[in-house]
Amino acid sequence: MKNIIVLTISTLVLIGCGGGDNGGSTSPTQPNNTSGQYSIDELDIEFSITNTSSRDTEVIAYARVQESPYPIELDETDKLSIVVDGLRYQLEPDYFEEGTLRSYSVNIPLNGNEYIVEWHRNQELVSSLTTTELSLPFELTQSFDGDLIDLSWSPQPYHSYYHGIEFLECENSSLRSTIGGFVPDLSKDEQYITTGHYQTSLSGQWNESLSSLMSDYDTCKVEIVIASNSDTAPFQTNMFMSLRLVTERTAIIDLW
């Protein structure tokens, strides 16, 4: 692939969740361009097959102009799909509340033997990538003692684990506010977790105490994303597209 910009799903969600407002998710500024304005050599298609629960596996894809962080809309000439054991599932657009594009996605069966992601233009295959292995699932156990948040799970063999975004969100009768979000510094390898255990705290991560939050808000919650990928099914890429295989769990801790 020409130039790969890796933005995890979780990071894009964080970008889309503005703090200190009364509304839902809003999108970052996006270009008005559509895919038909570009040749196939000018576009990068990023696929992710993500297991989000014991029941759900979602395929998410973004079409980007090279070196741009923002997804663009697909024209009718461009179609993204996944073939699971011979059955084709077409990805459909998913939008933010105000109508701008979030991604393309579709839910698929969890127990397939072969997964092929494809990009077609004018009904002709541009490129495809194939995997016969997905990242294995895991389940989180969580606890909160008034300051310390503790997450644990049973690691699968030959899998790497890492944490994505974590943020503190609070509400009262007039305000919904994301007090603070944390995205690990990938350049410092802050995201990797070498054991099946992760801890964070209100005081350490957000410089907050439970008592001060309770005095200002009606409810508060912390959300933390823990993800994994298989060491035997690595990230794939070619000249036109990439494929990432992920298991992702989100811990939601209601503080009171």
Describe what you observe in this structure.
It comes from Vibrio hangzhouensis. This is Lipoprotein. This protein has helices spanning 9-16, 202-206, 210-216, and strands at residues 43-51, 57-65, 78-84, 87-90, 92-95, 101-108, 115-121, 124-131, 141-144, 148-152, 159-171, 176-182, 192-193, 197-201, 219-230, 236-237, 241-254. The chain is mainly beta. The strands form 3 sheets. Strands 1, 2, 5, 6, 11, 12, 13, 15, 16 and 17 form a 10-stranded mixed beta sheet that branches. Strands 4-3-7-8 form a 4-stranded antiparallel beta sheet, with no helix packed on it. Strands 9-10-14 form a 3-stranded antiparallel beta sheet. The longest helix has 8 residues, at 9-16. Mean pLDDT is 86; it is low at 1-24.
Keyword list:
256 residues, Immunoglobulin-like, 4-stranded antiparallel β-sheet, 10-stranded mixed β-sheet, 3 helices, mainly beta, 47% strand, disordered N terminus
Low-confidence stretches: 1-24
At CATH level 2, the architecture of the largest domain is: Sandwich
Largest sheet: 10 strands, mixed
Q: Let me know the number of strands.
A: 17
Structural class estimated from helices and strands: mainly beta
Query: What is Rg?
Result: 19 Å
- The percent of residues in helical segments reads under 10%
Q: Give the amount of beta strand, in percent.
A: over 45%
Give the overall silhouette: globular
- Quick one: CATH class of the largest domain? Mainly Beta
Overall pLDDT confidence: 86
Number of helices: 3
Fold-level CATH name of the largest domain? Immunoglobulin-like
Task: Write the element-wise H/E pattern from the N-terminal end onward.
Answer: HEEEEEEEEEEEEEEHHEEE
Distance between the termini: 47 Å
**Number of structurally distinct domains:** 2
Organism: Vibrio hangzhouensis
Protein name: Lipoprotein
